[in-house]
User: Fold this.
Amino acid sequence: MAKLKEFAVTPDPDDHRLVERVTGIDHEGNEVTATVTVERPLTLYLNAQEIVTMMTIGDYPEYLAVGYLVNQNMLLADDEITGIDYEEDIETIVVRTEHQSDFEDKLKKKTLTSGCAMGTVFGDLMEKFDEIELPASTRIRTSDLYRLVKKINMAPSLYLEAGAIHGCVLAEDDQPLIYMEDVGRHNAVDKIAGYMRINGISGDDKIFYTTGRLTSEMVIKTVQMSIPILISRSGFTAWGVELARQADLTLIGRARGKRFLALSGERRIEFDADADVASDEPGRQSRKGANRA
Amino acid sequence: MAKLKEFAVTPDPDDHRLVERVTGIDHEGNEVTATVTVERPLTLYLNAQEIVTMMTIGDYPEYLAVGYLVNQNMLLADDEITGIDYEEDIETIVVRTEHQSDFEDKLKKKTLTSGCAMGTVFGDLMEKFDEIELPASTRIRTSDLYRLVKKINMAPSLYLEAGAIHGCVLAEDDQPLIYMEDVGRHNAVDKIAGYMRINGISGDDKIFYTTGRLTSEMVIKTVQMSIPILISRSGFTAWGVELARQADLTLIGRARGKRFLALSGERRIEFDADADVASDEPGRQSRKGANRA
Assistant:
């Protein structure tokens, strides 16, 4: 497919289904109106099998559904998707495949014994995780990293509009390509994974950016997408670091202004920027956690 | 039981099982050592039924296990707990009840038809949610709110030690009583719910504080604990606000320094503080999201 443009896909801060205006009072007791993020349920089926009900802002349901199945290893590389039916009124989405998937089969067997297949699925995930080899030659220049993070922070977003939301970005060099936001950071990741699967985008030469913490879950999903570099403005967990080292994933956290910390795969980083010229975060670039005051 | 003291239960920032020291490089390529939060799996059984594997920092597993079951409505008020067996080496915890619980029965029935009982459980939760009446007479004075938030921000914590963690506090007036932290905010809430169940603490005259966002999940859990006032330094989601209004929960968000925003149950707030004297957040009080730079 053709090369993706900068910000080829983004959330739409003007989409009135995604935010709501509500009234309340402020700390002085004055009536005020606030903008808040909408979350709504979406129940996902794989063929006839009910899989999960997710809470989501509701944009890009097709990407979310496919990405969830891919990242849970329920939809394998050779499973052909024959249809995706989203029914907005009943908050349901059905992903159809040509053949009943291996996962549905496993789920049926498993339910006869213990009721919920999540244990099996997790075991499968880790098995696949161990097999993935991330490309060793992909690099990230610190000058690109600084430009990339600045572009992401300056982009119009639901975060700037209403707060209480996480963002994820699929990037290449200093270019943010696909930008997704959602109430849970796992949904934002899944929407990007779904976009990549449906549009046949490879992760090999890409960079993944998230506003959320670098947990084991985030590391596993990034590796599953074959993306060799993961960046966050937030911190690390110990298991996230351990899994990243195991998979040889470049893990960069606490990336704010000119600062960052790399705890795995450091050799993919090229220090070509003078850290002194990268600005510290002023004004609109600053992002105080998952909300704004 | 006797009245709880301030910070009767807190995380232990000196517990070496909770944080790890790892080495990496900083933005100038210099070797640095960082402190990161530990997350580990804990598989929960209710009697012989495997329920879920949670990722947790691992302190207070008994409170986490019982709180999870209570908040998922799997352990009802009249279910008697006869034992809690935590096996640290195999990362497993078993909660035993005198009789097989109503939930296990439902789970068995449900698995015969669709494989995972989470839909049923959610339906049950909402049914119970609609029945709960929160006490109308509990009040929060703004002077207490300012003192409470200040005490919480100044307390020693894993957040200050390693970042990438959420905190929750059970409070009364201006007193933080039970302070829990965990990699997921739902775990921190569940640990408090477990403490309350095991020690017979009523939520009626209490206040709940969280560093996380005011989502539907957080509102449902607070209402389930019969706590009439929920405060966060983070923002709101629309469904969180809607459910809070439905349950007549006092919902205070974006609470930083002297500022806050109340979007539900405003009448429980008594404006007795001069907002001008409440300090804005300086230095150590400030908490930049779920990590520190």
